[in-house]
Design goal:
190 residues, mainly alpha, three-stranded antiparallel sheet, 9 helices, 3 strands, 64% helix, globular
């Protein structure tokens, strides 16, 4: 296939819609009613989020060069690949919030969903990998820290300040042990 502006635009539109849909899901799943109404379709969403977050934790890319508009691109194929990586990075960061909201509403979703969050997809381990190497933080050669926020790299304070946010999200995805033992008869174990 010959890549030019005409043939690469439809592929970009698909990626653009993927980013819009995950953004919409992030907003909707903030509300417990939406998590409850989603029912078993959350299984597929969790699998999608796990795939994106594993890619993010693997850290095979230079996130700064992907997401910053610092490099010029010569042809349409390179431009499409660069945009795909940037959109995938943004989508993966939104998946963190999606998983958090599903975990926060564990009382409103089925036990199967909670089991997948904790056991099948092992999101606590994935989040621990994000604590160890957060892709949204970058230390420059001069010692300054940059944080990726709202699709832009901005100067920020020391890294430790931001580690607490992801630690808080890990706590949010684990269900309350009292709830698990009393309501679901699980004896506090999943």
């Amino acid at each position: 296939m010959n890549f030019d502006a005409e043939t690469s635009f439809p592929a970009y539109v698909v990626m653009f819609y993927e980013a819009n849909l995950i953004g919409l899901l992030e907003v909707l799943l903030f509300h417990s009613e939406c998590c409850e109404a989603a029912g078993d379709t959350l299984h597929d969403l969790l699998q999608y989020c796990q795939h994106k977050l594993v890619w993010l934790v693997a850290g095979e890319e230079d996130w700064y060069s992907i997401s910053a508009d610092t490099t010029s691109v010569e042809d349409a194929k390179e431009e499409l690949i660069k945009r795909h990586k940037k959109i995938s990075f943004d989508v993966a960061l939104k998946c963190i919030a999606v998983v958090r909201y599903i975990g926060e509403h564990s009382k409103d979703v089925s036990l199967g969903i909670t089991t997948r969050v904790l056991n099948t997809y092992d999101f606590p381990a994935i989040f621990a990998g994000l604590i160890d190497n957060p892709p949204w933080l970058l230390r420059q050669d001069d010692g300054e820290w940059l944080k990726y926020d709202n699709s832009k790299w901005k100067k920020t304070s020391h890294r430790k300040v931001h580690d607490s946010k992801i630690k808080h999200r890990i706590v949010k995805i684990t269900p309350d042990p009292d709830y698990m033992s009393s309501e679901r008869g699980g004896g506090g174990k999943i």
